[in-house]
Amino acid sequence: MAKKAKASAASSSKTRLEARVDEELANEFRDVAESAGISVNQLLQGLVAWATENAVQGCPVYDKNGLEVSVEERPGCLFFGKASDREQIMKTQSDEGTVHFVLDLSLKNAIRNS
Predict the structure, then answer these.
(1) Residue 2's Cα: distance from chain center in Å?
(2) Organism's domain of life (predicted)?
(3) 65 with 38: CB under 8 angstroms?
(4) What is the pLDDT of residue 90?
């Protein structure tokens, strides 16, 4: 019993996070982790950390040149990247924004890559 209590205390800062996915997707995800030589948990933790840091609520909207990214508020839609910083663009002409992935569940539960 003492060993279990010790193990619980050591991992008390961790929280279980579960998701249900199709079996084929789960197998492909395991294959990705295995090919990288890491565990599924390590892959998930890295992806969750990255997604949390790069999530922007709303849909990305590009300027007429397709470079500058602004955000249009829309419930059920978020993208992963960075919206343009207007002040930074005016100062340095270097911050146009980036979009890595768009998750849009606002219309017909569609998921699309950008």
Answers:
(1) 39
(2) Bacteria
(3) no
(4) 46
Residue 114 CA to residue 102 CA, distance in Å, equals 6
What is d(CA 41, CA 55) in angstroms, rounded to the nearest whole number? 20
Single pTM value for the model: 0.63
* Residue 81 contacts residue 69 (beta carbons within 8 Å): yes
Instruction: Give the strands of the sheet with 98-104, arranged side by side.
Output: 55-57, 77-82, 98-104, 111-112
Residue 70: which of 90, 92, 98 has the closest Cα? 98
Domain coordinates in residue numbering, the chain? 21-53, 58-112
What is the C-alpha end-to-end distance of the chain, expressed in Å? Answer: 51
Number of residues in the chain: 114
Residue 94: other Cβ atoms inside 10 A: 8
